[in-house]
């Protein structure tokens, strides 16, 4: 086994995808797992929507358990960017330039904002209808 440490940034190639994540063969020859929740800060419905076998990725080592299983995160390397984008203003902490890529699902926060707006509009219409019927 190599001298991998928690917090290290590593490069590897996706060798397999499963419903729960992707296995990545690291340059050291070891294999680590990127859980589906650690692929992106955006909602990932299917691993294959974001990662494909043969794709080269950079990831952060989250943990190495006593049996040698390596837990990786691609998301951890991109989480620093939103905080810097927020300082420039613009409201959305994720910035606007990359949000609605055709390859990535819509950002969860955007989905929630749309749902809230739709819900408020429906409640307002219902309240107006009830007031009219009184």
TrEMBL record:
Residues 7-75 form the S1 motif domain. SMART domains: S1. Residues 77-95 have a biased composition (Basic and acidic residues). It holds the Pfam family S1. Residues 75-110 are annotated as: Disordered. It comes from the Bacteria. GO terms for biological process: translation. Binds mRNA; thus facilitating recognition of the initiation point. It is needed to translate mRNA with a short Shine-Dalgarno (SD) purine-rich sequence. This is S1 RNA-binding domain-containing protein.
